[in-house]
Amino acid sequence: MLLPFDVDVPPINPDFSAPFFGGLQVIASYVLAGAMLAVFIMLVIAGAALAFPNLATHKVQSWAGDNISRVFLAAACLGAINGLFGWFVNFDFGF
């Protein structure tokens, strides 16, 4: 009788060197960096509109007061995603 432990299985090592992974990494790096830059600019504008009332119009102040917590949360989430991406994959801007 043949038992499952009697079968010799050769060592199998997967190959993750697909040629398109480098391009996807560059695109993801650009998208994450661009999104983080855009959210950081929104956070600075919202903070400046609330800190200096004479700097912005009433509509901008109203938007900043309503959405600064959402923008801050988006910045925190994008920062965490950027950190994880940079740690696991490493940023590659194609230079």
Explain what this protein looks like in three dimensions.
This protein is mainly alpha-helical. Helices cover 65% and strands 0% of the residues. It contains two helices and no strands. α1 packs antiparallel against α2 (58-88). The longest helix has 31 residues, at 21-51.
The end-to-end distance, rounded to whole angstroms, is 60 Å
Helix content: 55-70%
Order of helices and strands: HH
Number of strands: 0
Helix and strand arrangement:
Layout: H1 21-51, H2 58-88
Helix pairs in contact: 1-2
List keywords for this structure.
95 residues
Task: Summarize the model shown.
The chain has helices spanning 21-51, 58-88. With 95 residues, the chain is an all-alpha fold.
